[in-house]
């Protein structure tokens, strides 16, 4: 039988509180969510995709155009890409793509200043359809 002292229990709860307030726990939860889908961290939807950064950028550009968003910036190379667009209500959309390997990349989507999860999910779904 394991005996726990009051100090041990207090230390465990103190450590748990510190981790939760420092942002580590949301990152761990977000990373676990990213295994089967995407991660939502600090107002940004992020996901790893098994296609090249160039291919992902082309799909994201097509998706944004198909959604009738106004494109302000669309640039990239083999390793990184950035797309800045705008909804008709003036809300900004920032899409950043970073290559992880030759055949995989990370995409990060932020809608608005604080992030809009539903709109970010819509954009990501539109991109997935074009992959």
Question: How large is the radius of gyration?
Answer: 19 Å
At CATH's second level, what is the architecture of the largest domain? 2-Layer Sandwich
Judged by helices, strands and strand pairing, the structural class is alpha+beta
Q: What's the CATH topology name of the largest domain?
A: TATA-Binding Protein
CATH-defined superfamily of the largest domain = Kinase associated domain 1, KA1
Shape: globular
What is the CATH class of the largest domain? Alpha Beta
The structural domain count equals: 2
Secondary-structure element sequence? HHEEHEEEEH
Strand content: 25-35%
Read across the widest sheet, the strand sequence of neighbours is 1-2-6-5-4-3
Low-confidence stretches: 24-36
* Major pleated sheet: 6 strands, antiparallel
How many angstroms does the end-to-end distance come to? 55 Å
Percent range of helical residues: 40-55%
Number of helices: 4
Rounded mean pLDDT is 83
How many E-type strands? Answer: 6
Brief overview:
With 131 residues, the chain is an alpha+beta fold.
Describe this structure in words.
A hairpin with a 2-residue loop joins strand 5 and strand 6. The model is unreliable at 24-36 (pLDDT under 50). With 131 residues, this protein is an alpha+beta fold. The chain has helices at 6-22, 24-36, 53-66, 117-129, and strands spanning 39-41, 44-49, 70-76, 80-86, 92-101, 104-111. A 6-stranded antiparallel beta sheet has the order 1-2-6-5-4-3. Helix 3 packs across helix 4. The chain folds into 2 domains: 1-36, no CATH class; 38-129, Kinase associated domain 1, KA1 (TATA-Binding Protein, 2-Layer Sandwich). The chain is globular, with a radius of gyration of 19 Å. It contains 4 helices and 6 strands; from the N terminus they run ααββαββββα. 44% of the residues lie in helices and 31% in strands.
């Amino acid at each position: 039988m394991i005996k726990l002292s009051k100090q041990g229990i207090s230390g465990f709860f103190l450590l748990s509180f510190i981790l939760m307030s420092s942002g580590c726990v949301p990152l761990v939860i977000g990373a676990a969510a990213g295994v089967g889908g995407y991660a939502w961290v600090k107002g940004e939807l992020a996901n790893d995709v098994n296609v090249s950064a160039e291919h992902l950028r082309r799909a994201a550009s097509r998706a944004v155009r198909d959604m009738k968003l106004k494109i302000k910036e669309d640039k990239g190379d083999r390793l990184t890409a950035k797309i800045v667009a705008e909804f008709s209500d003036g809300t900004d959309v920032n899409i950043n793509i970073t290559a992880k390997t030759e055949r995989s990349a990370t995409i990060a989507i932020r809608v608005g200043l604080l992030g809009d999860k539903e709109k970010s999910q819509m954009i990501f779904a539109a991109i997935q359809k074009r992959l």
